[in-house]
Design goal:
The protein has 389 residues and is mainly alpha-helical. The chain has one domain (5-215, 287-388). The chain has helices spanning 17-32, 41-55, 64-86, 90-113, 126-143, 151-171, 174-189, 194-215, 220-225, 233-251, 266-269, 291-327, 333-355, 366-388. The relative contact order is 0.14. It comes from Saccharophagus degradans (strain 2-40 / ATCC 43961 / DSM 17024).
C-alpha cells in the first residue's frame, strides 16, 4: 500500500497490483481465519468503522460512502488480519518491522524523486506524504535502540531516521512540519536524557543550521511563515470549511451526513456560515482539511466515538505495557526492545493527530496499520512473558 511500485514502473499499472494483492490476501485470510481474531481490538475497530462507513450510504447523497466502506472491509481488513496472523513471535515481529522500515526507505526516495510528492493514493500529495513519514519516525529511531542490535544495523537505522526528516522537509508541507515537530517533541519528552538530547540538538543546529538553510527548497521558509498569516488563502479556506463542518455536525449530530459526503453537502450548508455572502464562491467538492472536522461532519458522534476510543485505549495499553516492562527487575532484553517499540508506537500517533488537524486523513490506512502494529507488539510481548513465566 505504501511503496506502490506501479506508480514508478508504469508498465505495471494494467496489472492492478493492489487489487490482486488484496484479493490474494482475502483468500488467504479466509483459509486461515479464526473467529477469535474478531476479539482483537485492532480487527474489531476496522470492522466497526468500516461497517459504519458502508451502511452510511443509506443516508448519504453520494455513493462514495460505499467505496470507503468496501475499501476498509475488503482491502484494509485483510491486511490487518494477515499481519496479526503472521506476526505471532519475536523473530517474525523483527522481520516485519525491518521490512516496514525498508519499505519506507523507498517511500522517501519517491518523495525526493517526485519533488516532495509521495507514491500515490493516500501518499499522493505533499501533506499526505509528510504525515505518513512523520508517523514512522519514532519506529525507526527506537528500533535502532533494540538491545544487542549490531552497530551496522544501528547506523543504518539512524541514517534512515535522518533521511526521513529530510524527506518531510522536502515535501514543503506546513502540516508535515508540525508533525515532525510534534514527533521530535514527544521523543524528547519521553526520553530519559532530556538535557543531553537538548544540548546535542542545539549544538547540531548551531553547527549545521547554516548549511541546512542553504539546501532548503526554494520558498520553504516563506511557506512555513505563512502558517500564522491570517491572509493566507489556504488558511482562510480551512477555517471556512471547518465552520461548515461544524454546522453540518449540529444538523446531523448522531450519524452525520455519511462517510466521505462532506464535499457533496457543502452547497446545502455554506449559506449558514458567518462568512457567507450572496456572491460567495461555491465550495462544492472541497474537503474539510481536518481529520476531526471530517469525522464530525461525515460520521458525527458515532464515528468519532469509535475512532477516538480506539486511539485512546490503544495508546493507553502501549504506555502501561512499556512502563511495566521498564519497571520490572532484570527484564528479558527482547522485552526491553518490545517496550521501546510500545513507546515508539504511542509517540507515532501524535504526528497523526497533529498533522491530521489540517489534513482529511480519517479514511486513510495509517490508523489501521498503527493499530495492527500496536496489537502485534502487545501480542508478542504476551507470548514472551508466558515463556518467561
Amino acid at each position: 500500500m505504501y511503496t506502490r511500485p506501479q506508480e514508478i514502473f508504469t508498465f505495471l499499472q494494467p496489472l492492478r497490483l493492489p487489487g490482486i494483492i488484496a484479493l490474494l490476501l482475502t483468500f488467504w485470510v479466509i483459509k486461515n481465519f479464526d473467529k477469535n481474531l474478531l476479539k482483537m481490538p485492532s480487527i474489531s475497530f476496522v470492522v466497526k468503522f468500516g461497517g459504519l462507513c458502508l451502511v452510511s450510504f443509506l443516508w448519504s447523497v453520494h455513493t462514495i460512502s460505499i467505496t470507503i466502506g468496501i475499501t476498509w472491509l475488503l482491502q484494509y481488513l485483510p491486511v490487518a488480519i494477515a499481519v496479526t496472523l503472521l506476526v505471532r513471535n519475536l523473530k517474525k515481529y523483527k522481520v516485519f518491522i525491518s521490512l516496514w522500515c525498508i519499505s519506507h526507505f523507498f517511500v522517501f526516495l519517491i518523495i525526493f524523486k517526485n519533488g516532495g510528492k509521495g507514491s500515490g493514493d493516500f501518499l499522493a500529495d505533499e501533506n499526505d506524504a509528510a504525515l505518513g513519514v512523520a508517523m514512522v519516525l519514532p519506529i525507526i529511531l527506537y528500533f535502532s535502540y533494540w538491545p544487542n542490535i549490531t552497530p551496522k544495523h544501528k547506523f543504518l537505522l539512524k541514517t534512515l531516521f535522518l533521511i526521513a526528516c529530510v524527506a518531510i522537509i522536502a515535501t514543503r508541507s506546513r502540516g508535515g512540519l508540525l508533525g515532525l515537530v510534534s514527533a521530535a517533541g514527544m521523543l524528547w519528552l519521553f526520553s530519559k536524557s532530556k538535557l543531553k538530547i537538548l544540548f546535542t540538538g542545539s549544538l547540531l543546529v548551531l553547527l549545521a543550521g547554516s548549511i541546512l538553510l542553504s539546501y532548503l527548497p526554494e520558498g520553504y521558509l516563506e511557506d512555513v511563515q505563512g502558517i500564522s498569516d491570517p491572509n493566507d488563502s489556504t488558511r482562510s479556506e480551512r477555517i471556512e470549511t471547518w465552520e461548515i463542518s461544524w454546522i453540518m455536525f449540529k444538523d446531523n449530530p448522531i450519524w452525520g451526513v455519511g462517510a466521505g459526503n462532506f464535499p457533496w453537502n457543502v452547497n446545502s450548508y455554506q449559506d449558514q456560515a458567518s462568512w457567507w455572502y450572496p456572491d460567495a464562491r461555491s465550495l462544492h467538492g472541497r474537503q474539510t482539511h481536518s481529520l476531526y472536522f471530517q469525522l464530525l461532519a461525515d460520521l458525527a458522534l458515532v464515528g468519532m466515538l469509535i475512532y477516538i476510543t480506539f486511539i485512546i485505549t490503544t495508546a493507553s495499553r502501549l504506555f502501561k505495557t512499556q512502563r511495566s516492562i521498564f519497571k520490572s527487575q532484570n527484564p528479558d532484553p527482547n522485552l526491553i526492545g518490545l517496550g521501546l517499540m510500545c513507546k515508539a508506537l504511542y509517540i507515532s500517533i501524535f504526528p497523526f493527530l497533529v498533522s491530521g488537524a489540517f489534513i482529511s486523513v480519517g479514511y486513510y490506512p495509517h490508523i489501521v496499520m498503527w493499530g495492527t502494529l500496536s496489537y502485534a507488539t502487545l501480542a508478542t510481548i504476551e507470548t514472551i512473558t508466558k515463556k518467561c513465566n
